[in-house]
Write a structure and sequence with these properties.
The chain is mainly α and 518 residues long. Helix content is 60%, strand content 5%. The two termini are 20 Å apart. It is a multi-pass membrane protein.
Length: 518
């Protein structure tokens, strides 16, 4: 059955109504906090501050900007690896993040910063909102290319809500340490996305669609996202750590773990290939696993060599997951994980939670000093010892998983409703369904395309503007012919006729344009 993917009214209605709702809610509830408001001059006297430079903005803003780049550029470009879904990867990530940060400021504000009927926000709120949206970006990676922009917005609305409640339970009720979000961001985001993907399973997708792959240039764009994420991850894990030694340790530990995971990723990627070649999928993703896994223990006394060990293990586990586990999840468990979020965020997130629990349980005054131990952990004399704190840290993993599985199931069922405009199996991973793009037709040849064209052949026809044949090395010798403008069926037929006149030995078929042009 042909699905109605027209977004002309659905998407504008959602965007307009929800943004108007944000304006009203912000007007009623949101105000500047003491460090952003006009009473800063009086407030700094109560804190014995002698200069405006002691405003929290100057401590937090550099980290905020790094995290902000990770959310919009890092995650956005990481998702551009699909050969015909680059616009959707970076564009829909932009959309969900822009809406998500607004809703996160409200949800987190009501739970953490609500005072006298108002939500007081400053630069730290912006960082926490970005963290919340980071979990949505992770979940989006699981359904990338298979949902409509309206479904993306619906998923963002519910996931931000669930994330905020889960975060409140872990940080305010269980009092766990998770500054870098191994549990709250990565574990929750990954398994929420995988659960939604499971509910939205498309059994015939692999048979009807062969666009879930990459090209040379799309992998290169995705690598840009990887490098931005890799460079700024120390800021991500240390952004909301307490000032001083904890924040310093978080940056150092993340730095070391990331570096270690790169080497083991490269080693395993080469080892599992029969010809010893590297896989760009592994390099784009598994090299980041070390940053995920030290999110919880980053500000603890993990030690530099301990961080290297964590990165070493995660690089191996993540790469093997991409190589062997992802195909099993798709074929045996109905989990079609587009971006491999299970291997980059799910498993490393759980490892990070375990590392945090062990590190907390092993904490001693000899290592932290009495003052440092009190500052690091919310220990209550006679109630919480380091070992008990470790137990609470471990419990945080299971709480995050529970929120992810239950919440993901409910949201997945909602997203299965037939009126959200999701694409058919044939049109998944295709930008032209929701974006204005150049028209593509496909020619299939008997043998390698370079036997027929060298990439410089030109076609001239009265019905056509000048058009170039781009002979790209894609599977099954399918060669995209990029038209400068959308064309009619008769014009496409004319092109095929001209090509046949040139190379009568060519055996070619014309695929239907995604917008029905030919």
């Amino acid at each position: 059955m042909m699905k109605n993917t027209l977004m002309r009214f659905k998407l504008p209605i959602i965007c307009f109504i929800w943004e108007i709702a944000m304006i009203i809610l912000f007007g009623v509830f949101v105000r500047y906090n003491h460090e952003a408001g006009p009473n800063w001059a009086e407030f700094k006297k109560t804190r014995n501050a002698t200069s405006d430079i002691e405003n929290d903005f100057y401590f937090r803003y550099p980290s905020f900007q790094d995290v902000h780049v990770m959310i919009f550029v890092g995650f956005g470009f990481l998702m551009t690896f699909l050969q015909r879904y680059g616009f959707g990867g970076v564009g829909f990530n932009f959309l969900l993040a822009a809406f998500g940060v607004q809703w996160a400021l409200l949800m987190q504000g009501w739970l953490h910063y609500f005072k006298d009927g108002k939500i007081l926000i400053g630069v730290e709120n912006l960082i926490n909102a970005d963290f919340c949206v980071g979990s949505v970006c992770i979940a989006f990676g699981g359904v990338l290319g298979k949902v409509s922009p309206v479904q993306v917005m619906i998923m963002t609305l519910f996931q931000v809500t669930l994330f905020s409640v889960n975060e409140y339970v872990l940080l305010n009720q269980l009092h766990v340490i998770d500054a870098g979000g191994s549990m709250t961001i990565h574990t929750f985001g990954a398994y929420f996305g995988l659960t939604v993907t499971f509910i939205l399973n498309r059994p015939q997708l692999s048979e009807k669609n062969n666009k879930e792959g990459s090209l040379y240039h799309s992998d290169l764009f995705s690598m840009i996202g990887t490098l931005f994420l890799w460079m700024f991850w120390p800021s991500f894990n240390s952004a909301i750590s307490y000032h001083g030694d904890g924040q310093h340790r978080a940056a150092i530990n993340t730095y070391c773990s990331l570096a270690s995971s790169v080497l083991t990723t490269v080693a395993i990627s080469s080892l599992v290939d029969k010809k010893g070649k590297l896989s760009m999928v592994h390099i784009q993703n598994a090299t980041l696993a070390g940053g995920v896994a030290v999110g919880t223990a980053g500000e603890m006394m993990l030690t530099p060599y301990g961080s290297l060990i964590v990165g070493f293990i995660c690089g191996i586990v993540s790469t093997l997951g991409f190589k062997y586990l992802s195909p099993i999840l798709a074929s045996k468990m109905r989990i079609q994980d587009t971006c491999g979020i299970h291997n980059l965020h799910g498993i490393p997130g759980i490892i990070g939670g375990i590392v945090g629990a062990v590190t907390a349980a092993a904490a001693t005054e000899a290592v932290y000093t009495t003052a440092g131990l009190t500052k690091m952990f919310p220990l209550v004399p006679g109630f919480r010892s380091p070992s008990i704190q470790g137990g609470y840290q471990a419990a945080g993993i299971f709480v995050s998983l529970a929120f992810a599985f239950v919440g993901g199931t409910i949201v997945g069922i909602i997203l299965r409703l037939p009126f959200w405009g999701d694409p058919s199996d044939e049109n998944c991973f295709e930008d032209a369904i929701y974006w204005e793009v150049s028209c593509y037709i496909f020619l299939k040849f008997k043998g390698p395309a370079n036997e027929y064209f060298d990439g410089t052949d030109e076609i001239f026809s009265p019905e056509w503007s000048r058009t170039w044949l781009q002979c790209l090395p894609v599977p099954q010798f399918q060669v995209p012919v990029r038209c400068l403008s959308h064309t009619s069926k008769s014009e496409i037929s004319a092109l095929i006729g001209l090509v046949l006149q040139w190379r009568t030995t060519a055996m070619l078929d014309c695929a239907v344009c995604p917008e029905g042009r030919g």
